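In response to the reviewer comment on reproducibility (Comment 2.3), we provide here a single inverse folding case reported in full, input and output, so that an independent group could reproduce the run without further information from us. The C-alpha coordinates appear first.
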Protein backbone atom coordinates (compact mmCIF):
# COMPACT_ATOMS: atom_id res chain seq x y z
CA UNK A 1 0.00 0.00 0.00
CA UNK A 2 1.43 3.40 -0.99
CA UNK A 3 0.66 5.08 2.36
CA UNK A 4 2.65 2.41 4.22
CA UNK A 5 5.53 2.89 1.83
CA UNK A 6 5.43 6.66 2.41
CA UNK A 7 5.47 6.18 6.19
CA UNK A 8 8.37 3.81 5.85
CA UNK A 9 10.30 6.34 3.77
CA UNK A 10 9.44 9.18 6.19
CA UNK A 11 10.93 7.21 9.05
CA UNK A 12 13.98 6.31 6.97
CA UNK A 13 14.57 9.89 5.87
CA UNK A 14 14.27 11.40 9.33
CA UNK A 15 16.89 8.97 10.64
CA UNK A 16 19.44 9.61 7.87
CA UNK A 17 23.04 10.35 8.80
CA UNK A 18 26.23 11.07 6.86
CA UNK A 19 29.92 11.38 7.66
CA UNK A 20 30.86 13.82 4.92
CA UNK A 21 29.62 15.80 1.92
CA UNK A 22 30.11 12.86 -0.43
CA UNK A 23 27.76 10.68 1.59
CA UNK A 24 25.20 13.49 1.72
CA UNK A 25 25.26 13.71 -2.07
CA UNK A 26 24.67 9.96 -2.32
CA UNK A 27 21.63 10.30 -0.08
CA UNK A 28 20.33 13.19 -2.13
CA UNK A 29 20.56 11.10 -5.27
CA UNK A 30 18.90 8.15 -3.56
CA UNK A 31 15.86 10.08 -2.38
CA UNK A 32 15.51 13.35 -4.26
CA UNK A 33 16.90 12.84 -7.75
CA UNK A 34 14.73 12.09 -10.79
CA UNK A 35 15.38 8.41 -10.39
CA UNK A 36 15.14 8.58 -6.64
CA UNK A 37 12.75 6.90 -4.20
CA UNK A 38 10.38 9.84 -3.93
CA UNK A 39 9.97 10.27 -7.64
CA UNK A 40 9.36 6.54 -7.90
CA UNK A 41 6.27 7.05 -5.72
CA UNK A 42 4.90 9.42 -8.32
CA UNK A 43 4.63 6.53 -10.77
CA UNK A 44 2.35 4.66 -8.33
CA UNK A 45 0.46 7.89 -7.62
CA UNK A 46 -1.07 7.79 -11.08
CA UNK A 47 -2.79 4.47 -10.31
CA UNK A 48 -4.44 5.69 -7.10
CA UNK A 49 -8.18 6.10 -6.80
CA UNK A 50 -9.31 9.69 -7.34
CA UNK A 51 -10.80 10.07 -3.84
CA UNK A 52 -7.43 9.17 -2.24
CA UNK A 53 -5.29 11.38 -4.44
CA UNK A 54 -5.54 14.39 -2.16
CA UNK A 55 -4.43 12.56 1.02
CA UNK A 56 -1.67 10.64 -0.68
CA UNK A 57 -0.50 13.77 -2.55
CA UNK A 58 -0.18 15.69 0.68
CA UNK A 59 1.69 12.81 2.28
CA UNK A 60 4.15 12.61 -0.62
CA UNK A 61 4.69 16.34 -0.39
CA UNK A 62 5.37 16.07 3.34
CA UNK A 63 7.89 13.32 2.65
CA UNK A 64 9.60 15.40 -0.03
CA UNK A 65 9.87 18.48 2.25
CA UNK A 66 11.18 16.36 5.13
CA UNK A 67 13.78 14.79 2.84
CA UNK A 68 14.91 18.19 1.49
CA UNK A 69 15.19 19.62 5.02
CA UNK A 70 17.09 16.59 6.28
CA UNK A 71 19.54 16.53 3.36
CA UNK A 72 20.18 20.28 3.76
CA UNK A 73 20.80 19.79 7.45
CA UNK A 74 23.24 16.96 6.80
CA UNK A 75 25.02 19.00 4.12
CA UNK A 76 25.51 21.90 6.52
CA UNK A 77 26.88 19.61 9.20
CA UNK A 78 29.28 18.02 6.76
CA UNK A 79 30.48 21.39 5.49
CA UNK A 80 31.30 22.73 8.95
CA UNK A 81 33.02 19.47 9.87
CA UNK A 82 35.08 19.71 6.68
CA UNK A 83 35.99 23.30 7.42
CA UNK A 84 37.16 22.34 10.88
CA UNK A 85 39.15 19.44 9.55
CA UNK A 86 40.86 21.73 7.06
CA UNK A 87 42.11 23.87 9.98
CA UNK A 88 43.47 20.93 11.86
CA UNK A 89 47.16 20.88 11.08
CA UNK A 90 48.82 18.39 13.36
CA UNK A 91 52.28 19.44 12.21
CA UNK A 92 51.84 23.08 13.23
CA UNK A 93 54.05 24.29 16.12
CA UNK A 94 51.87 24.86 19.17
CA UNK A 95 50.76 28.31 20.26
CA UNK A 96 53.24 29.57 22.88
CA UNK A 97 52.04 29.10 26.43
CA UNK A 98 51.89 32.49 28.10
CA UNK A 99 53.93 32.30 31.27
CA UNK A 100 52.97 34.37 34.27
CA UNK A 101 55.27 37.17 35.35
CA UNK A 102 56.80 37.87 38.69
CA UNK A 103 55.14 40.69 40.56
CA UNK A 104 57.28 43.84 40.52
CA UNK A 105 57.35 43.89 44.34
CA UNK A 106 58.65 40.31 44.33
CA UNK A 107 61.31 41.21 41.78
CA UNK A 108 62.53 44.09 43.93
CA UNK A 109 62.24 42.11 47.16
CA UNK A 110 64.43 39.39 45.60
CA UNK A 111 66.93 42.04 44.47
CA UNK A 112 67.15 43.36 48.03
CA UNK A 113 67.56 39.85 49.45
CA UNK A 114 70.30 39.06 46.92
CA UNK A 115 72.27 42.20 47.67
CA UNK A 116 72.19 41.63 51.42
CA UNK A 117 72.88 37.92 51.20
CA UNK A 118 76.06 38.72 49.30
CA UNK A 119 77.04 40.75 52.38
CA UNK A 120 76.45 37.80 54.71
CA UNK A 121 72.84 38.39 55.81
CA UNK A 122 70.50 35.43 56.06
CA UNK A 123 66.75 35.38 55.71
CA UNK A 124 64.30 35.32 58.60
CA UNK A 125 60.58 35.88 58.62
CA UNK A 126 58.20 36.80 61.40
CA UNK A 127 54.43 36.75 61.82
CA UNK A 128 52.04 39.25 60.24
CA UNK A 129 49.54 38.71 63.04
CA UNK A 130 51.43 39.38 66.23
CA UNK A 131 51.06 40.74 69.74
CA UNK A 132 51.79 44.18 71.15
CA UNK A 133 54.73 42.73 73.08
CA UNK A 134 56.76 42.01 69.93
CA UNK A 135 55.50 44.82 67.71
CA UNK A 136 55.80 47.62 70.28
CA UNK A 137 56.74 46.84 73.88
CA UNK A 138 60.02 45.03 73.32
CA UNK A 139 60.95 47.65 70.77
CA UNK A 140 60.90 50.36 73.41
CA UNK A 141 57.65 52.05 72.36
CA UNK A 142 56.32 54.21 75.19
CA UNK A 143 52.90 53.16 76.50
CA UNK A 144 51.33 56.25 74.95
CA UNK A 145 53.20 56.15 71.63
CA UNK A 146 50.83 57.18 68.81
CA UNK A 147 51.70 54.11 66.69
CA UNK A 148 49.87 52.03 69.31
CA UNK A 149 46.75 54.00 68.52
CA UNK A 150 43.76 52.48 66.73
CA UNK A 151 44.21 55.09 64.05
CA UNK A 152 47.45 53.49 62.92
CA UNK A 153 47.18 49.89 63.91
CA UNK A 154 44.60 47.23 63.03
CA UNK A 155 43.70 45.30 66.14
CA UNK A 156 42.51 41.71 66.00
CA UNK A 157 41.85 41.21 69.69
CA UNK A 158 42.12 43.64 72.61
CA UNK A 159 43.15 42.46 76.03
CA UNK A 160 41.67 44.86 78.61
CA UNK A 161 43.95 43.63 81.40
CA UNK A 162 47.28 43.60 79.60
CA UNK A 163 48.00 45.71 76.51
CA UNK A 164 51.10 43.70 75.68
CA UNK A 165 48.74 40.80 74.93
CA UNK A 166 46.71 42.74 72.36
CA UNK A 167 46.69 40.87 69.05
CA UNK A 168 47.23 43.05 66.00
CA UNK A 169 48.38 43.18 62.40
CA UNK A 170 51.99 44.28 62.51
CA UNK A 171 52.50 47.86 61.42
CA UNK A 172 56.18 47.29 60.62
CA UNK A 173 58.59 44.41 60.08
CA UNK A 174 60.58 45.52 63.13
CA UNK A 175 58.63 42.89 65.10
CA UNK A 176 60.97 40.41 63.38
CA UNK A 177 63.79 41.94 65.44
CA UNK A 178 62.08 41.03 68.73
CA UNK A 179 61.31 37.49 67.57
CA UNK A 180 64.77 36.87 66.21
CA UNK A 181 66.71 38.27 69.17
CA UNK A 182 64.48 36.39 71.60
CA UNK A 183 65.49 33.11 70.00
CA UNK A 184 69.05 33.77 68.78
CA UNK A 185 72.22 35.07 70.40
CA UNK A 186 74.76 37.20 68.46
CA UNK A 187 76.30 37.23 65.97
CA UNK A 188 73.03 38.11 64.24
CA UNK A 189 72.85 39.19 60.60
CA UNK A 190 69.37 38.86 59.18
CA UNK A 191 67.05 40.52 56.75
CA UNK A 192 63.34 40.01 57.10
CA UNK A 193 61.03 40.85 54.22
CA UNK A 194 57.31 40.95 54.82
CA UNK A 195 53.93 42.59 54.58
CA UNK A 196 52.77 45.22 57.04
CA UNK A 197 49.42 46.85 57.72
CA UNK A 198 48.36 50.34 58.68
CA UNK A 199 44.99 51.93 59.03
CA UNK A 200 45.38 54.38 56.14
CA UNK A 201 42.87 55.57 53.57
CA UNK A 202 43.82 54.02 50.23
CA UNK A 203 45.10 56.50 47.65
CA UNK A 204 47.81 56.76 44.99
CA UNK A 205 50.36 57.45 47.75
CA UNK A 206 49.15 55.34 50.69
CA UNK A 207 47.73 51.87 51.18
CA UNK A 208 46.47 49.89 54.14
CA UNK A 209 49.06 47.19 53.44
CA UNK A 210 52.52 47.44 52.00
CA UNK A 211 55.89 45.74 52.21
CA UNK A 212 59.07 46.29 54.12
CA UNK A 213 62.44 44.66 54.51
CA UNK A 214 63.95 44.79 57.97
CA UNK A 215 67.67 44.40 58.59
CA UNK A 216 69.36 43.54 61.88
CA UNK A 217 73.02 43.15 62.71
CA UNK A 218 74.14 42.46 66.29
CA UNK A 219 77.66 41.52 67.36
CA UNK A 220 80.57 42.77 69.46
CA UNK A 221 81.86 46.19 68.48
CA UNK A 222 79.29 47.06 65.80
CA UNK A 223 79.36 50.77 65.03
CA UNK A 224 77.43 53.37 63.06
CA UNK A 225 80.20 53.33 60.46
CA UNK A 226 79.41 49.68 59.71
CA UNK A 227 75.77 50.62 59.19
CA UNK A 228 76.64 53.47 56.87
CA UNK A 229 78.95 51.37 54.72
CA UNK A 230 76.42 48.56 54.36
CA UNK A 231 73.70 51.01 53.36
CA UNK A 232 75.95 52.77 50.85
CA UNK A 233 76.84 49.44 49.28
CA UNK A 234 73.18 48.51 49.14
CA UNK A 235 72.19 51.82 47.50
CA UNK A 236 74.88 51.51 44.83
CA UNK A 237 74.06 47.89 44.07
CA UNK A 238 70.36 48.69 43.85
CA UNK A 239 70.39 52.01 42.00
CA UNK A 240 73.75 52.13 40.28
CA UNK A 241 77.36 53.03 41.20
CA UNK A 242 76.82 56.80 41.00
CA UNK A 243 74.13 56.77 43.68
CA UNK A 244 74.79 59.03 46.65
CA UNK A 245 73.31 58.62 50.11
CA UNK A 246 72.69 61.02 52.95
CA UNK A 247 71.71 60.28 56.53
CA UNK A 248 69.45 62.69 58.37
CA UNK A 249 69.06 62.50 62.16
CA UNK A 250 65.66 61.11 63.09
CA UNK A 251 63.82 59.33 65.86
CA UNK A 252 62.66 55.75 66.27
CA UNK A 253 61.90 54.27 69.70
CA UNK A 254 64.03 51.18 69.00
CA UNK A 255 67.21 52.86 67.75
CA UNK A 256 69.57 55.40 69.28
CA UNK A 257 70.92 57.30 67.46
CA UNK A 258 68.40 57.05 64.61
CA UNK A 259 68.54 58.29 61.05
CA UNK A 260 66.60 58.36 57.84
CA UNK A 261 68.47 57.64 54.65
CA UNK A 262 67.90 59.45 51.37
CA UNK A 263 69.38 58.47 48.05
CA UNK A 264 70.07 60.87 45.22
CA UNK A 265 66.91 60.79 43.10
CA UNK A 266 67.62 58.29 40.35
CA UNK A 267 64.74 59.59 38.26
CA UNK A 268 66.27 63.05 37.68
CA UNK A 269 69.81 62.13 38.66
CA UNK A 270 69.65 64.52 41.62
CA UNK A 271 68.74 67.59 39.56
CA UNK A 272 65.25 67.88 41.04
CA UNK A 273 61.93 66.58 39.67
CA UNK A 274 58.33 65.97 40.67
CA UNK A 275 59.18 62.61 42.23
CA UNK A 276 61.81 64.02 44.63
CA UNK A 277 59.74 67.17 45.18
CA UNK A 278 62.56 69.12 43.50
CA UNK A 279 65.03 68.35 46.29
CA UNK A 280 67.16 65.84 44.36
CA UNK A 281 66.84 63.35 47.26
CA UNK A 282 64.38 60.57 48.06
CA UNK A 283 63.96 58.92 51.46
CA UNK A 284 64.13 55.13 51.27
CA UNK A 285 64.69 53.83 54.77
CA UNK A 286 64.93 54.34 58.51
CA UNK A 287 67.89 53.06 60.50
CA UNK A 288 69.98 53.39 63.61
CA UNK A 289 71.92 51.67 66.35
CA UNK A 290 69.73 49.18 68.19
CA UNK A 291 68.70 50.81 71.47
CA UNK A 292 70.28 48.93 74.44
CA UNK A 293 66.78 48.70 75.96
CA UNK A 294 65.71 46.61 72.98
CA UNK A 295 68.71 44.29 73.28
CA UNK A 296 67.99 43.80 76.99
CA UNK A 297 64.23 43.28 76.45
CA UNK A 298 65.10 40.48 74.04
CA UNK A 299 67.67 38.83 76.31
CA UNK A 300 70.90 40.13 74.76
CA UNK A 301 73.57 41.64 77.01
CA UNK A 302 73.90 45.26 75.92
CA UNK A 303 77.17 45.69 77.80
CA UNK A 304 78.77 43.12 75.50
CA UNK A 305 76.92 43.56 72.23
CA UNK A 306 75.82 46.39 70.02
CA UNK A 307 74.00 46.38 66.73
CA UNK A 308 72.34 48.31 63.98
CA UNK A 309 68.97 47.95 62.32
CA UNK A 310 67.22 49.35 59.29
CA UNK A 311 63.83 49.10 57.67
CA UNK A 312 62.92 50.00 54.09
CA UNK A 313 59.72 50.22 52.07
CA UNK A 314 59.66 47.85 49.10
CA UNK A 315 56.98 49.89 47.26
CA UNK A 316 59.09 53.03 47.50
CA UNK A 317 62.14 51.30 46.06
CA UNK A 318 60.05 49.71 43.31
CA UNK A 319 58.63 53.14 42.43
CA UNK A 320 62.12 54.50 42.12
CA UNK A 321 63.30 51.61 39.95
CA UNK A 322 60.22 51.25 37.74
CA UNK A 323 58.46 54.61 38.10
CA UNK A 324 55.12 53.27 39.21
CA UNK A 325 53.16 56.37 40.04
CA UNK A 326 50.14 54.88 41.79
CA UNK A 327 50.52 52.49 44.74
CA UNK A 328 47.15 50.90 43.99
CA UNK A 329 48.58 49.36 40.81
CA UNK A 330 50.53 46.90 42.97
CA UNK A 331 47.41 45.25 44.33
CA UNK A 332 44.91 45.59 41.48
CA UNK A 333 46.26 42.59 39.56
CA UNK A 334 45.78 44.26 36.19
CA UNK A 335 47.52 41.88 33.78
CA UNK A 336 48.49 44.72 31.45
CA UNK A 337 50.50 46.26 34.30
CA UNK A 338 52.02 42.97 35.42
CA UNK A 339 53.08 42.03 31.86
CA UNK A 340 55.24 45.12 31.69
CA UNK A 341 57.59 43.30 34.03
CA UNK A 342 57.87 40.23 31.78
CA UNK A 343 61.46 40.90 30.87
CA UNK A 344 62.57 41.99 34.33
CA UNK A 345 63.18 38.39 35.41
N1 LIG B 1 59.93 50.37 61.52
C1 LIG B 1 60.17 51.63 60.89
C2 LIG B 1 58.94 52.05 60.11
O1 LIG B 1 58.10 51.25 59.85
C3 LIG B 1 61.34 51.58 59.96
C4 LIG B 1 62.62 51.39 60.70
C5 LIG B 1 63.32 52.46 61.15
C6 LIG B 1 63.13 50.12 60.92
C7 LIG B 1 64.51 52.32 61.84
C8 LIG B 1 64.33 49.96 61.60
C9 LIG B 1 65.02 51.06 62.04
O2 LIG B 1 64.85 48.76 61.84
O3 LIG B 1 66.19 50.88 62.69
O4 LIG B 1 58.82 53.19 59.76
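Designed residues, in position order:
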Amino acid sequence: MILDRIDELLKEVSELSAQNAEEVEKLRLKYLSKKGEINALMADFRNIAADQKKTVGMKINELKQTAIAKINELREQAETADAENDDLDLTRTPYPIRLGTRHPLTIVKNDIINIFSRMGFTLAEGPEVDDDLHVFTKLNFAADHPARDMQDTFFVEMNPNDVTKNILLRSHTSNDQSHYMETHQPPIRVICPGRVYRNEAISARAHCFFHQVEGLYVDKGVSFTDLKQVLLTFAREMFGPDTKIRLRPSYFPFTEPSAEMDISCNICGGKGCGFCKHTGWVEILGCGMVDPNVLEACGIDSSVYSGYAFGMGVERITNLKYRVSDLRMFSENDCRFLREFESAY
